[in-house]
Amino acid sequence: MSLRSRPVRLSEEVNDRLFYTTDSIIDKFTLKRYQYELESLHNKGKMELDDFVALGEVYFHEKRYDQFLSIVEEGLRKHKDLYLLGNYIMGKMMIHDQNLYSLRSFNLYKEWFNNQYNPDNKPLSFQFSHDFWPFLGKKYRFAKELLGNITIGYDRICRIEVGPLVIAEAYDHFEQERCDFFNHAFEIFIERLLLETISSEEEEYFKDILGAANYKEIAEKASLAAAKKKYKMTEIPGIDRKLRKELLVIVTSEKGYTYASNPDLEIYESGDTPDEAMSEFYDFFRVDLENWINTPLDSLTPEAKSLKAKYMEYIES
Questions:
Q1: pLDDT tens-digit map of 166-211
Q2: Coil, helix or strand for 116?
Q3: Which pTM does this prediction carry?
Q4: What is the pLDDT of residue 12?
Q5: E strand intervals along 35-103
Q6: Any residues with CB less than 8 A from the CB of 47 and at least 6 apart, and which?
Q7: Over the stretch 243-269, which tens digit does the pLDDT of each residue have?
Q8: Are 207 and 215 in contact (CB under 8 A)?
């Protein structure tokens, strides 16, 4: 009796080799073969869930976006699968904004939540590598792949995890600032170096990812900060009441970096000048405070309740 390994289905091969990108990572002949064989399955009515995922990836790679949307929508109607919905939304986000994974013209929250295929409003989670943001590779040299996990909850809290670095912020910040999650997380790492608030675990992780020499270079630049000033504010522009307790704002300036931050509230805003960074800080604090005031406590997760409580201390006794 001979043992034979299970033959790999075409969709498994496709899903292993392709992902939603517009880069040329596979030859055109192979891509056309995938397309022909998967379309043949579709015409025969033999498409399974993984086949819809695979054919969608083929169409996306060929930049045939209308066909990508059509085939994945068909798969969703048939299978009502949450994973397929995630692929669909990630693809739509990239179609809307080829500057990979920013939110300039795409409401990620609205697409995922209150969706007929996500009736329980389960959180959206996805993982990305720094390779998806070429400017990070130009600005910093990496010795190893840097991966990030992003989870967006129904309570509008966005949780970003890059190794031991964990950041929780209101999703609305990313919509308003039109920034991407991943670069934001890496800039917070730089900011923690500047403020000397980085943990030993975070230090070891980034030293491994960046390489000892690159990490040392970044750390030395941080230690040469030209200015680090702390301000205690009781009045914030745009808020028509005095704060009940002083709000700490740390402004750090160094060639190439200017930040206004409050580590306890996890606010890290940048600008070309200290005044601009302070203005960005005020805007973020004001908008977030208003959001927390208007958000019912019973709709929040424990993590979100903790963050709201910190904000409420500034306006409640």
A1: 888 777 766 655 446 666 676 677 667 656 677 888 888 888 988 8
A2: coil
A3: 0.63
A4: 83
A5: none
A6: 38, 41, 55, 75, 78
A7: 888 888 888 776 566 788 887 888 888
A8: yes
Neighbours of 175 (CB within 10 A): 17
Q: Is the dihedral of CA 195, 198, 203, 206 positive or negative?
A: negative
Asked whether the beta carbons of 95 and 72 are under 8 A apart, the reply is: no
CA dist 109 and 180 (Å) reads 14
pLDDT for position 103: 44
**Residue 187: other Cβ atoms inside 10 A:** 18
Q: What does the alpha-carbon distance between residue 170 and residue 300 come to, in Å, rounded to a whole number?
A: 12
Question: Coil, helix or strand for 35?
Answer: helix
Q: What SS3 state is found at 123?
A: coil
What number of residues does the chain have? 317
C-beta separation of 140 from 214 below 8 A: yes
Distance CA 116, CA 94 (A): 22
At residue 181, the pLDDT reads 67
Nearest to 133 by CA among 143, 123, 121, 145: 145
187 token code pair:
């800039």
Provide the edge-to-edge strand list for the sheet that holds 257-262.
Answer: 227-233, 247-254, 257-262, 267-270
